[in-house]
Amino acid sequence: MKKSLLLLACCLLALPAIVSAENDPWKRADEILQNISDPVFPDRSWNITKSGAKPGPRHDNTRAINRLIERASKAGGGKVIVPAGEFYTGPITLKSNVNLHLEEGAVLKFSNDPNDYVPFVRTRWEGLDVINYRPLIYAFEETNIAVTGKGVLDGQAGNESWWWMKEKEEFGWKEGMSSQYQTGRPKLMKMAEDNVPVDQRVMTKDGLLRPQFVNPVSCTNVLIEGVTIIRAPFWVIHPIFCENLTVRNVSVNSHGPNNDGCNPESSRNVLIEGCEFDTGDDCIAIKSGRNNDGRNNPIPSENIIVRNCHMKDGHGGVVMGSEISAGVSNVFVENCTMDSPELDRVIRIKTNTVRGGYVRDIYVRNIEVGECKEAVFRIELMYERRDGDGPYMPDIRNIVLDNVNSQKSRYGVFIEGREEDIVVSDISFINCDFHNVEIPTRISGSKNIKFKNVSFTVDEVQ
Description:
By secondary structure, the chain is mainly β. It has helices spanning 26-33, 62-74, 184-193, 292-296; strands at 2-7, 45-47, 78-82, 85-89, 92-93, 98-102, 106-110, 121-125, 128-132, 137-140, 143-149, 152-154, 214-217, 220-225, 228-230, 243-248, 251-254, 268-273, 276-279, 284-286, 301-307, 310-311, 318-321, 328-338, 345-350, 358-369, 375-380, 395-406, 409-416, 424-444, 446-460.
């Protein structure tokens, strides 16, 4: 085994400074932070055990918990406390001015019986608006809401419940069983393609579209802090149409199908910090609606800050896409660590000409990568080729990676644009080191890709 060092900076000395001091985009991140603050709650509390909740698998506490949240909200708000112990429940609905707080040692074990998650509610499923299963924790058009504490949220999903619906044998699906790909997913996609009004897009239990775990919809002033979330049916934290959202010091450990860690969708002023993600899909995936539902109601995701997070297993560390038809902009990622042989990519952008959308003004700095499986930086504009081709050309531009260092990956930079329509441009890499790569760069269908003080250490097998 022999190592050689490939330096790209030497051929680009004539380039001007990529980011000037007087035009520092990170000043914009500071401005965004000024618009993000934690919700404030009245100094009063209610304990669920004093309202009839009891620990142990024989007790269904769904009604007791939801009634107490409703009562606390009507009283002006405060903290609803889950004390130490295992409390079994069905879906929980958050209400304005209520902080659902799990004390250390508290575990909320959610039912994995689909029958407990009706009546269905309005949400989005893979970027498409729908009336579907009630998420495990749900809020709609509420303000000042939180889930906090040192406790555990356990979705109890597994191969015997929820996960098999994906139609993968590794998750319990067997030949002859129905699946989301055969039932609800094609039905919903056809409704969206035909612009069927949302209130008529009512799924059934037979549709098998698994519910999200934590799903605030059209909410403001949202805080999710401190909790550990495990065994999710589907996407774990999925805010939609939200503003002023903080996800802080949360641990997500869930390896089921489509178990994305945190997916802010069509949301703005979002802070994700101090979290750990160990997932069966993307760790963080920023989205903004799919196809017609993103274009007809064009609410982008913007002003999003990710910092001081650690990513383990997952398809991608911080991802834009694939449902980004309304666009994504002003994303700032800094001071994160990512390391796992089962982490496919570090920074990823994925879409196609059916979904379209723009991704612009993305800034990444101070990222330490131990190991990832495929690429440290990846753009793919032909994601899910089964979608075919469409007229909605993506627009990917103005992306800067500064001081991103990795120790092992197959590719350093892998950009797969479109040769016939160059829509990927102005991507800069500054002060980056990519060690132990098999292929330093694979770049096509793009322009103005700049490297300054960037090195690749390539393994050569003799």
